[in-house]
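Sequence design from tokenized structure. All designs in this work follow the same two-part layout: the structure record, then the generated sequence. An example of the structure record is given first.
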């Protein structure tokens, strides 16, 4: 039986989720024994998480890497992503890092250069690539079942906004939230987004506007073949967490997210669909995708698969998000720097 030891840095909300998914890997990977070591500057909290999961707490990142882990999972704050990615690359192990690579594209580029120069293996956490609905949409599109695409509509709406303290450093709604849509649009179509025109509003908490963000935004994006798409986002979707992608083709159309937990109700008489309880956060909406994403990282370490989301792809999505933010601020269409 093989032994796989993963090191995790950061045990906030998403870090705890990753820790649980790592702990559950042993039952899904044949003939592999999985161990977890974790660290966080909030040591007492990290120790409790470790105890709950049968993991080992390590006082620092340096000590964690010195123990000889087989892979590094980064769920710490965005500001420290670059140094942690490079530390993992220096240790000669594959790295999984939550998006984004860095706080902006300019700070991401040296990281890309470093990873390439040192033959590093880095998987970025864009979990929608593992969601069953998005995977089926990509399959159907690739098989030609939809014909040629004439329009796409992507939606990401949180039920409630995160703390304003987070929004003050998140880079804005497009960079924090819609970057997932920009990534999935590129991934699904295999095409580059070349222009963005964005508008936004702020009718909720005025403190969101005070830190330079908006609570609702819409972007019209144009692909390199002229195809258009819309990407909309909101922090205040009281009906529930709503993530969808509508793909309309010359032969057929698909809608990702059309299930019993869709955070909508019909205005038509006698239509009971959807009847399920809507998701409240992204963690429930993408529970299985997050599990499959971590299993994919384990397979990447074991040499059983190629990298499902290299950092170059993540930075490409961030370029689009940056262009959307610039358009939002200037009121003008912005060409995406490829």
């Amino acid at each position: 039986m093989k032994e796989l030891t993963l090191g995790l840095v950061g045990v906030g909300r998403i870090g705890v989720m990753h820790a649980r998914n790592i702990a559950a890997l042993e039952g899904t990977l044949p003939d592999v024994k999985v161990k977890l070591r974790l660290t966080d500057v909030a040591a007492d909290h990290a120790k409790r998480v470790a105890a709950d999961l049968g993991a080992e707490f390590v006082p620092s990142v340096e000590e964690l890497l010195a123990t000889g882990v087989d892979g590094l999972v980064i769920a710490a704050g965005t500001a420290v992503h670059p140094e942690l990615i490079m530390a993992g690359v220096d240790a000669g192990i594959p790295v999984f890092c939550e998006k984004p690579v860095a706080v902006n594209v300019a700070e991401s580029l040296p990281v890309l250069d470093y990873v390439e120069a040192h033959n590093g293996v880095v998987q970025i956490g864009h979990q929608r690539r593992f969601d069953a609905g998005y995977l089926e949409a990509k399959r159907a599109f690739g098989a030609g079942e939809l014909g040629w695409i004439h329009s796409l509509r992507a939606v990401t709406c949180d039920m409630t906004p995160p703390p304003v303290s987070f929004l003050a450093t998140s880079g804005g709604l497009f960079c924090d939230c819609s970057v997932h849509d920009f990534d999935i649009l590129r991934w699904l179509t295999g095409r580059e987004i070349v222009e963005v025109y964005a508008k936004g509003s702020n009718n909720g908490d005025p403190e969101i506007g005070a830190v330079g963000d908006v609570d609702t935004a819409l972007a019209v994006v144009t692909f390199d073949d002229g195809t258009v798409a819309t990407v909309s986002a909101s922090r205040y979707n009281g009906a529930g967490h709503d993530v969808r992608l509508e793909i309309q083709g010359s032969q057929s159309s698909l809608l990702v997210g059309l299930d019993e937990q869709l955070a909508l109700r019909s205005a038509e008489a006698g239509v009971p669909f959807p009847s399920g309880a809507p998701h409240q956060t992204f963690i429930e909406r993408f529970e299985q995708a997050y599990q499959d994403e971590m299993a994919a990282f384990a397979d990447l370490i074991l040499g059983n698969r190629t990298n499902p989301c290299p950092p170059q792809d993540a930075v490409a999505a961030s370029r689009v998000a940056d262009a959307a933010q610039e358009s939002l601020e200037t009121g003008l269409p912005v060409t995406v720097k490829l």
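The two ends are 45 Å apart (CA to CA). We note this feature because it recurs in several other targets discussed in the main text.
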